[in-house]
C-alpha cells in the first residue's frame, strides 16, 4: 500500500493516497498449470485506476516482469526512478531469470532459520555463485547465511578462516557499498 494519508479512519475506505494491489492467481489452462500476477494501482482520491496489468509468470521471465513493473509504476506515478537505484538494480540482479527464482528460494530458507533450511540455503546460494559469479548480491547473501549457520553450530578453523576471507572480499565490492546486506 502506497499512501500519504492524514485521515486515519480505519473503518472507511481511504480518500487519499494510492493503493497498490498485487495478486497471484493459479489457473489450469490446457492441461498445464499457469501462474498469473495481477497488479493494480488505484488513486483513492477519485477511484481511478492508474495501472492495471496482468503477467503470465514462467521460469525465465521474472526479471522481464520486474523491469516492466518498475517501469510501468514509474510512468503511472509520474515519478522516475533515481539513477542510483537503476544502477544498483543492474549491478546486484542476476542476468538470468532462473537464478532469481533460486535466489528467492534460498532467501526463504534463510528466513526459516533452522539447521536444515540454512544448510539448503547455503547450498543453493553456492550453486548460484558458482554459475553466475557476477551476481555479487548472492555472494553476500551466502556469507550472511554462513554467519548465521556459524552462530548456531560453530565452523571449524579452516571453514571460519574461509568465511572471514570471503566477508573481507565482499565488503570491498563497490556495488555492495551502503546496502543493508553489508551491515547485516
Automatic annotation (TrEMBL):
<feature type="domain" description="CadC C-terminal">
    <location>
        <begin position="1"/>
        <end position="87"/>
    </location>
</feature>
<keyword id="KW-0238">DNA-binding</keyword>
<dbReference type="GO" id="GO:0003677">
    <property type="term" value="F:DNA binding"/>
</dbReference>
<protein>
    <submittedName>
        <fullName>DNA-binding transcriptional activator CadC</fullName>
    </submittedName>
</protein>
<dbReference type="InterPro" id="IPR011990">
    <property type="entry name" value="TPR-like_helical_dom_sf"/>
</dbReference>
<dbReference type="Pfam" id="PF18500">
    <property type="entry name" value="CadC_C1"/>
</dbReference>
<dbReference type="InterPro" id="IPR040970">
    <property type="entry name" value="CadC_C1"/>
</dbReference>
Amino acid at each position: 500500500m502506497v499512501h500519504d494519508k492524514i485521515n486515519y479512519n480505519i473503518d472507511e475506505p481511504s480518500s487519499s493516497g494510492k493503493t497498490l494491489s498485487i495478486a497471484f492467481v493459479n489457473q489450469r489452462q490446457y492441461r498445464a498449470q499457469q501462474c498469473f500476477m495481477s497488479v493494480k494501482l488505484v488513486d483513492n482520491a477519485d477511484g481511478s485506476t492508474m495501472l492495471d496489468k496482468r503477467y503470465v509468470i514462467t521460469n525465465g521471465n521474472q526479471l522481464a516482469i520486474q523491469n516492466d513493473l518498475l517501469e510501468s509504476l514509474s510512468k503511472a506515478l509520474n515519478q522516475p526512478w533515481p539513477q542510483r537505484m537503476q544502477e544498483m538494480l543492474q549491478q546486484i540482479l542476476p542476468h538470468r531469470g532462473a537464478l532469481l527464482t533460486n535466489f528467492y528460494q534460498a532467501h526463504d530458507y534463510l528466513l526459516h532459520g533452522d539447521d536444515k533450511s540454512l544448510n539448503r540455503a547455503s547450498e543453493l546460494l553456492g550453486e548460484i555463485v558458482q554459475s553466475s559469479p557476477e551476481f555479487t548480491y548472492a555472494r553476500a547473501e551466502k556469507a550472511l547465511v554462513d554467519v548465521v549457520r556459524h552462530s548456531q553450530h560453530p565452523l571449524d578453523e579452516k571453514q571460519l578462516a574461509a568465511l572471514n576471507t570471503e566477508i573481507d572480499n565482499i565488503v570491498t565490492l563497490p556495488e555492495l557499498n551502503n546496502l543493508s546486506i553489508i551491515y547485516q
